[in-house]
Specification:
The complex is a heterotrimer of chains A (about 60), B (about 325) and C (about 250). Chain A is an alpha+beta fold. Chain A has helices at about 1-10, 30-50; strands at about 20-25, 25-30, 55. Chain A has a domain at about 20-50. A two-stranded antiparallel sheet of chain A has the order 1-2. Chain A is elongated, with a radius of gyration of 20 Å. Chain B is mostly helical and about 325 residues long. Chain B has helices spanning about 20-25, 35-60, 70-75, 75-90, 115-120, 130-140, 145-155, 160-175, 190-205, 205-215, 225-230, 235-240, 265-270, 280-300, 310, 315-320, 320-325; one strand spanning about 30-35. In chain B, helix 4 (about 75-90) crosses helix 9. Among the domains of chain C are: about 45-110; about 120-205, no CATH class. In chain C, helix 3 (about 50-70) packs antiparallel against helix 5. Classes of the chains: A alpha+beta (about 60), B mainly alpha (about 325), C mainly alpha (about 250). Chains in contact: A-B, A-C, B-C. The interface between B and C is large, with 129 and 124 residues.
Amino acid sequence: MLASTFLPLLASGLNQPAHYLTWGPVQISVANFVVILVMIVLFVLALVLPFPKGRKRP
Amino acid sequence: MTATQTPPRGSGHARTGKGAQDLARRPWAGGKRSYDIVKELVIALVVVGLVATALSLLFSSPDDPSITMKSWATAAPSDLVSTAAQELAGTSGVAGYGPPYNSTPDVAQKIGPISLQELAGVRIPIDTATDFVIRPLQQMPESAATTAAIGVWTAASADQQAKWAGDYADAIAAAPDGDYTKAATGTYGPVPALCAAVLDASTQGAYDGVLQAQGRFYNTDYTFPLLFLADGTYLEDQARAQHLGGDQWGMTNETGSYPGQSWLWLYTFWYQIDPFASSDNADSLVWALMMVLTLGLILLPFIPGLRSIPRWIPVHRLIWREYYRDHPKGGRE
Amino acid sequence: MTVTDDKPYAATDSHSWTGRLRGRIFGTFPPEKLLPEDQPEYVASWIYVFGVATIAALVFLIVTGLVLTLRGPAWYHVSSLGHFVNSMHLWSVELFFMFMVVHLWGKFWMAAWRGGRAMTWITGGFCFLASIGTAFTGYVIQTNFDSQWISTQAKDGLNSVGIGAWFNVLDLGQMLLFHVALLPLAVGVIVLWHILLVRKHGVVPPLDAVDGDSLDHQLADSDDQLVTAVPNQPNAQTSDTQEMTS
């Protein structure tokens, strides 16, 4: 199966011990930090990126 | 206010803001733009599908294998033996848990004067000595030595049982490296034999089945083996090694380097700080606090001040900037 | 109160429960509201795509979840295809919550509960909570080390408030049924209700919007004491005298 040959090549990446960022009482895994960062970036981009002009309707 | 109109509440200093409220309530009578709701959904499905597929192909998902009684016995035999002794002694976590497992007094968590844990009562009664050790041993082929040990145990008084098992558990804890084979000799009655039988059956892979099945053919309830496992330190040690412990923000974390449940950040945050971190009532207090905060989120539209934050910090000026630009008289400067 | 001119759907001549129900349903949700071809001009920001993105992620959750049910809870441990479907299910969860929270942020900053839309906000909040509960039951039925740890930890929280015996996270059978049947149904109902409310009330207009008739610049909340402290008052007097045409 394609999956059984393809997957092991790619999928080893995250199956290793995580790294943690610490800041006072806050400890966050790199993965979770990336998730939250992506959310913030998406939010900011959604606010600032221009939206296509639509066709006006009567 | 002009004479040509009779706005029931149109003036800028309206006391109640009902003019704007009317606008927000009624169907929009202003300009429209073309919108294809079906195409929007299709595009969303395609984009999300592609992203999810890419992430799955690139990163897969975690699947750390379960701990079994067998793997526990092989990796940490002293912990298993010690845990079995504590179950017999009635000093294990479950034995002293209180409701819903038993009625140990004064251990249930409280919120102020109220203990919801106590009120719920003992709904899943567990006698750790019988349920985790004696009965499973009886449900397997027994050696003569084990049968004899069970006989001595069941004939003894509760105090005698507690003394034997408690002393044995203490001896293991005091032994070098907590190694049960190096526990000081003493008067432990049948307890070492019983614990050895549990270890032996576990090492052979037989204990998993009897502990879980509880004499039934079909049993999808894993309460007994999970509680027994959690009473030891091996499960917790493996978890803490991966930052899954309660005081390690563990609720938000996942095994390996995978993202976890970051949406639980606020729930687990309270466990990291005092007074919760050092409180015996941490779980119930955190639950109560989160219920209050959740109500605050749900009922936000009705909370003065909080619901006005979007007005005070005008992020909306960015969102609707085109509208405000096209309708300068309608918006603020 | 719904302002609608959809007279064809009004059940003025209904003579039965069915007729009255039909009138209410189609009066509130005429086809043009359910499947519109246009929307107000102010719906022109990328922030508006996060609702439908959340729905799309939910669709993938359901579809991958259904595939996992076809082969049972242990399949993904032993099959590469099963593991891939499990991965799709897990990453869909991450995307689902990411999009949902960005959607929530957007709706907060738009004060989207205005104009009688409090229930839209409230049902949205319940979508969030129900999703967290459903996700949690998913984590405890993984039948691996993670589920062993999560369930034995979570039981403490639930037991501490007295519900652990009824919601026994150590009972795989119960949690499986909760995750696959009970909670998806609850989430589905709440999500549907939320979406219907959006269709019913329309997308909330901008703060300080004018669509032709309104001369008011104040917050929609009638008892909001902050109204008088809002610093945009200077415009209000002059706008009273403007002739507004749509």
